[in-house]
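Complex 510.
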Amino acid sequence: MANLILILGDQLTPDISALVDADPTRDRIVMAEVGEEAGYTNHHKKKLVLLFSAMRHFADRLERDGWQVHYQTFHPDNDLQSLEAVVADQLKTLGAGSVITTECGEWRLHEQISRWHERLGVTVEIRPDTRFIASKQEFSAWAEGRKQLRMEFFYREMRRKTGLLMTGDGEPEGGQWNFDADNRKKWTGKPPAPAPFRVQPDAITREVIELVDKHFADHFGTTEDFHFAVTPEDAKAALEHFIDFALPCFGDYQDAISDTEDWLFHAILSPYINCGLLDPLTVCEAAAQAWYSGRAPINAVEGFIRQIIGWREFVRGIYWLHMPDYARENRLGNTRSLPWFYWTGETRMRCMHKAIDATRRNAYAHHIQRLMVTGNFALLAGVTPEEICDWYLAVYADAYDWVELPNVLGMVMHADGGYLGSKPYAASGKYINRMSDHCSNCHYKVNKSTEDDACPFNALYWHFINRHRDQFAGNPRMGMMYRNWDKQKPERREALLKRGDALLATIEQL
Ligand code: FAD
Ligand code: SF4
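Predicted structure with iron/sulfur cluster bound:
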């Protein structure tokens, strides 16, 4: 009997596990653009264009390779607006006896698919996603019995497992596991940052842009200047562009933020890796090769590989280990709504305006903008994890629940009580000033703390430290902050707290 093979929008990999052993003459592949998936959050318009266009290109390729593909394009009047409805309909027309799919990247859909065998009355085989380096079982075996999980130790396991940047004797290349201490330079315009890799939209992409502009007009962001790759060939060219032009400086300026450059020396590969156009291991091997052939320094290559086989795998492991409870965590007891300027970028805080505006235009902001600007502000202001997580899930082209949630709820908001990160990434304006050139262009003064024109991050930082004394005073990595706070004169502390209260009371006007 024929099988129905469901391929999701982030599973655009020809050797995805759902296709292994499939029979092109008998089985049918189903792919669908449905309202339920496109509309469950306010997905950035460029993210929708990227995924719909990449899905259409992938389906075309499968058909050319001899597969039978049922592809449903999006239209608001389609009767079938959920994956379940499309699958049920196809089961009927094909008379198939089973559904085969690869495990999906979010709990919400995983729950639904797990019930299909009862709801649809057929066998549903959910296969592991072999595109990750560590399986879910491998991660949970590693995590077993550890009170706190530290990425660095997991990362070393992944280095050993993949052999990436390892000598024949099982030692890390360059004599160190981690070169992060070399990766904290401020960027002052030199060397110039490379132009990002751009692909001219083809006829399929142009059609999708029209569709998104018409039917998703109220979604965040813009389709203007869409230049992402939508095929594996173009994604590979984007990888080569990164290796040739950005990787050599990736490490040095990994933590830098610029008032004028959106992309700096970042890879801009996560949208492709996460939807299957690029394989994470191939990406890492290409970077390692650049070091072996003397085209990029070790601090850049190690730092880059750590992000992928370390952080990326680590957050995925945590997600599947602790969902669905993880999504409900709010250990700092935050209650504040997300300020509206996260959607408009209309704020006098230059760093926030720049990060949000780049996000709106590009469906992209680099890691330090996400962590130390928009994330840091939400942490200091005490925004509810749920609202800030929803924002991050909506606005980035690379955002999927499995990777967004631990990064935001755990790393940024410290809402999991320090399970993912040993201390909150809270910082005052001083940090942003050290790593960027925003402050000299800002309405607020970074060297002031209590005055009306003082940088909001400064008083909010101390407000955060003070209001969470119970949670953090005993943390050895935070002891110095509390000593600094306690050393300040009572009048100064009072003035900082008063300014913090005033900022929070007028947050929408900042
Ligand atoms: P680079 O900076 O060049 O890094 C190289 C690659 O490493 C990335 O392509 C990505 O695959 C991987 N990577 C780096 N850091 C992480 C990380 N912390 N977690 C997982 N992978 C990582 N990444 C996503 O892919 N999707 C998200 O929804 C997402 N949300 C984030 C939210 C917050 C608050 C923070 C702090 C980080 C988030 N990240 C997310 C991680 C990281 O910011 C992005 O992967 C990165 O900015 C993507 O751009 P790039 O390809 O230019 O990455
Ligand atoms: Fe951001 Fe403060 Fe600097 Fe303004 S002064 S850019 S608000 S850190």
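The two ends are 63 Å apart (CA to CA).
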